[in-house]
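[step 3/7] fold_predict: job queued, chain A
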Amino acid sequence: MIRQIKEAGVVDFVDNRVTPTAFLDAADVHVEPAVAAITEALEILLGNDIFSPAELETIEVSESEIVKKLTPLAREYKGTAAQPRARKESDPINATHGWVGSQTIGWGRFEGLEPDNRFTVLSGSHFRRATLNEANARNDLQVVVEQTQQELADRGIIDLTQLVFLSNYTFDNWTRAAYVVSGKGTYSGGYHWQPID
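[step 4/7] structure written:
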């Protein structure tokens, strides 16, 4: 059976590392019917014939069908951010997203269409400082957030006293932006950057 599966090449095969201890001869008449029965049962269970090589056939797929199968990579909105909110007078014109979270006001935008993940937090957005607690199991994430906030402050991008972005800053993705704005290394961009309609 293992040899048949390997030769068929229909499924990925892991080499059999078991050392054969039995040698089949003409007296082993029960083996072939048993293998046939097990093979048939596997085909029924899997709903597929993994013992016969698949015939190669050319399948034509239109470009439009390929595009339909592509799923968004960066912009899956969840929780409160799942529904767009109406634009407010206080929203900057170039903001396409608003921050979802208590006591923090922030705006952002993606820098390009999918699959471009770059996300810019706009000047005037507020943020919260990272708090460290060595007893916390995920304190390592908080350390990274604090270091990032300090680096941005040293570059004059954020003000650690007023807790505000002094200029626009583009992050690799909206989750990294969420880390800095929330001060928490466990926050996800999909839950905290809400589209502005």
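[step 5/7] annotate
Residues 79-195 form one domain.
The mean pLDDT is 82.
exit 0
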